[in-house]
Amino acid sequence: METKHDESKEMSKYTGSCHCGAVRFQVEADLREGASRCNCTICTKTAMTGRIVKPNAFTLVAGEESLGTYEWAAKISKRFFCRQCGIH
User: Fold this and answer.
1) Are the C-beta atoms of 28 and 15 separated by less than 8 Å?
2) d(Cα 86, Cα 9) in Å, to the nearest integer?
3) For the chain, which domains are there?
4) Are 64 and 31 in contact (CB under 8 A)?
5) Residue (of 51, 16, 17, 54) closest to 32 by Cα position
6) What integer pLDDT is reported at residue 75 of this predicted model?
7) Which among 4, 19, 41, 87 is most buried, taking Cβ atoms within 10 Å?
């Protein structure tokens, strides 16, 4: 049985921000592909559901100066958060 890849993905643009609005972004994604849950301690405690997108599908609209970072263990992963309200 042959599986065909659907080339006609419907990418849509979405906007988002942290709680206080200091950090704002735009992302292009096909949400029909679903989302996932990370099992790291931060995401588990906050019940985070996310979607990984390619860097060229993400635009930071405002707030680069308000971004802080958190790294742990072997420092192979980095979390960004708003320094004003703490939302990642």
Assistant:
1) no
2) 34
3) 12-82 (2.170.150.70)
4) no
5) 51
6) 78
7) 87
Mean pLDDT, residues 56-76 taken together? 91
Q: Among candidates 48, 45, 51, which has minimal Cα distance to 14? A: 51
Residue 57 in this model has a pLDDT that exceeds 70 = yes
Q: Do β-strands 58-62 and 24-29 pair in parallel, antiparallel, or remain unpaired? A: antiparallel
pLDDT at 73 over 50: yes
Contact 23, 66 (CB under 8 A): yes
Neighbours of 83 (CB within 10 A): 15
Token representation of residue 55: 């860097």
User: Which residues are CB-neighbours of 53 under 8 A, at least 6 positions away?
Assistant: 27, 28, 29
- Tell me the C-alpha distance between 48 and 27, whole Å: 17
Closest listed residue to residue 48, CA positions, set 13, 21, 79, 27: 79
